[in-house]
Amino acid sequence: MVRRLTRPEALACAREVTDRRVSILRALTFALPALALATALAAAAPRVTLGRTQEPLRLDGRLDEAAWRTAPVVRLTQQSPQPGAPTPYETEVRLLRAGELLYFGFLCRDPEPAKISVRTWRRDGQMRGDDAVGVVLDTYGDRRTGYFFFVNAAGARADGLISDPEHPSLDWDGIWDARTRRTAEGWTAEILVPARTLNFTPGLEAWGANFQRYVPRERVTLRWTGVTLDAFFYDLSRAGALAGVGDLRQGYGLEASPYSLGRTTAQFGPGSRAWQGATGGDVTWKITPQLVTVFTANTDFAETEVDTRQINLTRFPLFFPEKRAFFLEGLNQFEFGLGLGRHFIPFFTRRVGLLKGRPIPIEAGAKLNGRIGRWNLAALEVRTRATELVPALNLGALRASCDLTSQFRVGTLVTHGDPEGLRENALVGFDAVWRTSRFRGDKNLLIGGWTAFTRGDRRPGQHGGRTGWGFKLDYPNDLVDCSTTLYQVGPALDPALGFLPRPGVRHSIYGCRLQPRPARDGSLAWIRQYFLRGYYERVVNHLGQLESWRYQWSPLGMQLESGDEFKLEWAPQYEFLPAPFAIAPGVVIPPGPYRFDRVELDAETSAHRPLQFATENSLGSFYSGRLVQLAGQLRWTSPEGRAQIGVGAEHNRARLREGRFVQRLWRLEGTLAWNAYVVLTTFLQYDSESRNLGVNTRLRWTFQPGNDLFVVWNRGWQQLVRSPGELALAPESEMLALKLRWTFRP
Asked: Could you tell me the pTM of the whole model?
């Protein structure tokens, strides 16, 4: 018997059914996007297995061997400017393995091959204007650290180590090779990477990998995976899987790189010419496929490029990057914290073997870097020779970190030694970094914190705390890029082997960039992307006194479809000088508060153009008066990229109550390449502060990867007359060096 429901019961039943439907719909509202996201993430991590061939391939840039025709193929997808959109620049990557040799073959189609661009032939040269292809490899499987390899259409190579998805560093020169070939349909590239060049986790069945092609004239980027605008090529958490590497071996794991050097130096005037011969070198031993040690003896840096001169208008020391090969290789393993940049570098290798700009000979040293399980290890110990400046010293650092998860890493850093040899000094630091590329679906988010303290003898008159701490929250994405940084360092925090230009302050930086892209079919389609930027920076000293603040607001910044860029910026600023500041010879600014405003206008033409121009200009109030800063650079590259000439100049003109001054800096750079393995470079600089004209000329001839001949000539001239209208130069110093470096692998 069926009972008829009363009206109130029927209404209650209807409400219950409706509530259940709403609950189901709500559940689906959350479940379906989650399911779609999971599916998308799974689809964003493709997998491919290396093909096999019995014999090594002939490396000539042609993909014409039979093995290439049967090799597994991956096809690249447009990542920028229109993710996933069809493109005429069809690109295939073919993958092969011959024993312990890895081959990557790129087939790059181009509808207009005559427009393929090459702007550099140098090893580790700037390739922003070059048609180029690249490979990244995560050989540890930690989705954080790895290697990258690039080659442009001329066969010039660039490589380095990855520890930061936004800022990779060219701090490693591996032994690998590449060849390219122009075709009627575009160009092809063959890249050869020996397994013993890499450190990797043995037995790991698949490495993280990604492949990229860049077409500069259209600023089109294609990738295998990570094809959203928010994805960085060096973000290994977005990499695909390269299988078929589980049984790779590294042989004996030994490598010797001896050198022989002949050098003549001269100091003109009262000095005399000296002749010198030297030998030395490095020995590398891979204790395990993941852990490598390097021993060096009588280390020499004759082939190192000279520093680029800078003009300093601040009361803090300038930063000059490391360029010496022994210290560069594996330097990323010592990175500490998140986004400290040049504000604080706990271990700065330029403090080793250099003192007040003068080289200190290195007798011997040892490095260790790699992984043991989830632990990342790096260590450096160097013995410097006694000179008239300092006694013989031992200087070193140790870095250890642990990947608690694929996203969270904690670590410590310890340094010891004083490069001046005057006191005992040590630093101990701890840091933690968490990062993800899946925040709100596929966005990047990074959070990091650190603390550090120093121990040992204090400098005369040094008082206060010796600790520091800081954190950073970073949201680096294509449309919105925001970050917050706060750190505090005590007035006596004194890292003798570090770089800390401003101790005893609390420094905070907040800012965002909004970077919209106009519609491709709209009236502003000639603009690729806007850049609207606002940042606020504030510094308070350890006494609680406001020392400086600066606000940077860029209401107009854009990159055009042509690749040219423009930026207009307004920057009000406040500075409190606690002591007199000698900004130029004879011009001393008295202590006190100063408030000034400056406007900056920058412009740069696209890097793919044969004639490239860039300029940075600012003007406005400055301390007690006004300052005009003008800087420009003009670079011409021959049609095939073999010859390049660049001219740069900086000009500062200040009118202050305390006096007037003019600062000038000129640079001239030239490059001539016979091919990607024989390159001659010249770098000439003059600045009005030192009144010194210097030239550095270097010929690098790479017989084969790992075997190089360097011929280096340095000469300096000093301006003898201070009159602005006269340029009388007298020779001051000269050095000519011939260095041969060879690599042996048993």
From this structure: 0.87
